[in-house]
Amino acid sequence: MDITCFDDLLQAARLQPEPQRLLFVFAASTIPDDATPEQKARHARGEGGELTPVLCVDKTPDELAAFDALVEESRRTGHDWQVVFVAAMADQSAYLPDNKDVDQAFQRMTQMIKYGTIGALLAFDRTGEPIVFGAA
User: Fold this and answer.
1) 67 in any annotated domain
2) Comparing C-alpha atoms, which of 85, 23, 75 is closest to residue 53?
3) Number of independent structural domains in the chain
4) Distances (CA, A) of 129 to 3, 41, 104, 122, 124
5) Mind listing the pLDDT tens digit for each residue in 58-81?
6) Which of 44, 105, 111, 125 is the most buried (most CB within 10 A)?
7) Number of C-beta neighbours around residue 125 at 10 A
8) pLDDT score at 92
9) 97 falls within a domain
10) pLDDT tens column, 10-35
C-alpha cells in the first residue's frame, strides 16, 4: 500500500495482522546560535535550518481518529514544531507493560533526525501533507 497521506498511514496500521503502535517525533526547525545573518534570513523565510526533536508521543491507530487530533494534542503541549516523523512497530504493551522497546525506538528515531538519516521514517508537515526530503 502506498502511503500518500496520513489517513493512508492509519489505514495501513489498522490492516496489519498484529496490533501496531505509531511512534511520533515532532521536530522544530532551528538554527545554531552562531548562524550567519544570511542563514538567519533564510531561516526566517522558511528555508534551511536544522530539525531538532522536541516531543515524542506513541499512539495506537485506534487512539487517533485523524491528523487534526494529533495536531490539537501537540498544540496543548506548548511545543512548536514544523515536521512530525512517524514510524510503526508491533504493539507489545499487552505483553510487556513496561515496554522499553518504545523508548529505544524513540531514541533511535531522535538520533536519525539529529544525523539526517531519516529515509526510513515517514514525515508530515503541520497540515498533514507528506514531506519528501531531498539532497540540500
Assistant:
1) yes
2) 85
3) 1
4) 11, 25, 27, 11, 5
5) 999 999 989 999 999 999 999 999
6) 105
7) 12
8) 72
9) yes
10) 999 999 999 999 999 999 999 988 98
Tell how many helices (H) and how many strands (E) occur in the chain: 4, 4
Residue 102 is predicted with a pLDDT of 87
- Cα Rg of the chain (Å, integer): 16
Would you say residue 59 lies in a domain?
yes
91 lies in some domain: yes
- Measure the CA–CA gap between 82 and 33, rounded to whole angstroms: 19
Rounded Cα–Cα distance for residues 13 and 22 (Å): 8
The enclosing H or E element of 27 equals strand 20-30
| 3-state DSSP helix/strand/coil % of the chain, to nearest 5 | 35, 25, 40
The parent domain of residue 88 ranges over: 6-125
3-state SS class at 62: helix
Q: How far apart are alpha carbons 136 and 8 in whole angstroms?
A: 28
What is the DSSP code string of 78-132?
T---SEEEEEEEE--TTT-TT-HHHHHHHHHHHHHHHHT--TTSEEEETTS-B--
pLDDT over threshold 90, residue 123: yes
- SS3 (DSSP) at 19: coil
